[in-house]
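hey so u asked for the seq, here:
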Amino acid sequence: MKRKKLLALGTVVIALGIVAAIIITMTSKAPEESEKYAAFEWFLTASALPETWDVEQPVFRAITDATNCTPIVTIPATDADTKLNLMIANNDLPDMMTLTNDDLINELIEADLVWDLGEFMETYLPESHIFEDFPEDVKNEIIRRYGSWYFYPSHIVSDDAAEIWGYPEGTEAYYEALKYSDQFSVFINTAYAAQLGVDVKSVDTEEKLLDLMQQFNKAGLKNEAGADVYTLVIPAEELKEMNMRPLKYQFGTLPYNEEGNYRSEYYAPQYRHAIEFLNKCYQLGYLDQNIMTLDGTSTKTICNSGRAAVYIGGISGLNMGHDDEWQTPGPVLSSAGDSPVFPVRGTTGVGWLKTFISKNCENPEEIARFIDYMSGREGMIVHMYGIEGEDYSWDDQNMLNRTETGKSKVEDSVSGMFGFYAFHHTNFSRSVEYIDAANASDLQISLGSSDKVFRYNSSLFDLPAGYIEAGSDYAFIKNEVNNYVETEIPKLIMSKDEETFNKMYDSTVYDEYVNIVVQEAAAEAGIDLKEAQPGK
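ran it, structure tokens below
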């Protein structure tokens, strides 16, 4: 932990006056016992873990017993990137880091602060299973995009991974459809729609969605406890990136224009229309101002206590067993007439979360053992499914079935079960977990699998590592735009001033620069983006 370089991204963020993150640091619940184990610092940007590494909880106990580790986990409540930059500036880089921000990731790589994962494991645990069952296509894509195998990716799904783990008999068609899945959508409470006699699948236009919310708003809905029901709930803390996603797809936002040139989604008229839609919901009283101040945990509580009629966000914000409680209408045609769109990868993905090891880490042997366990079959079953007999059982087809107790612990931020997002492995889960494909929910595939949707190749818009050079004018413009959007979208939604809308959509030279690599990728893939348009 001897590096002392404040990354350019942090400089920009701090210059914009953003306050450093409040953090939660996970400690051991039994400090006298924890002295027997190796500790290392783990910085996490996303998880469903508690504040304490509680070895009295069976999942944490099993991990600690298998790895001899009790990680000291830092979970930023807000603004994780700034927090990590401050740690670097204070000569205090964490031993292990799970990140999402590509700008920050590229800075760490360029500064030579992180290990190549293969070299790290070869040095400290050469017998690791990772050299046998890590999918080659994912590894190659990481190397292509980042220059080396720098990280362990979460939510692995690829052709090679499917070949390694396989699919249960009879589920192949279902999982093939999941190529068009997305966990973010517009969800409508089934019971409340039934009270109004509305078929959720009939809500296929923006006007019908607004009309349904008007009916909900006038109905004076109450949940089982007698509490008022919010017409529309949308987690404000993730509004910029994640929860604008379902609306921008529904309303037809593409990352390129009619001429086939790259265009930041913020400047697309369809993206603006999505924000205007939410502004209309606010003006009509469907979106309560108080909702705009709630964090994800509070929003989840509202949704899972029957206090939301319409929810726009991620399916992870709903409890297990939500299939009977919520429906999604599928494609919703905007009033502007733009076709809904959906991104489909033309190349292998590299996961959502990316876990790196600092070159100056302490206890590297224990970290290697921790990664090996958490990414292996035994560890994945423990941290995703819990303890056999209590949280799950195996049926006569050798498929894993969660018990009711196990279902209640999923992402509960207490037990640790299903909370280690960094090591979730999609293809592994599909190989072991029972699913009745005949009765499977369409909550995640109703948009992407519809023949009313235009699908585009999202792989063309992956930028090579370091393409936007740290400290360059382009990097400054990109960060300035992103930070501006993050702070202004909630204001725009609650705004009556159309001039405020217009400021966000002024074009910048950043788009022109990104377009260079987009055109190169399109040419290599044999795709003419000018022709790859809805309706053509």
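The domain at 180-346+456-525 is CATH 3.40.190.10 (D-Maltodextrin-Binding Protein; domain 2). The chain has two domains: 8-158+352-435, 180-346+456-525.
lmk if thats what u needed
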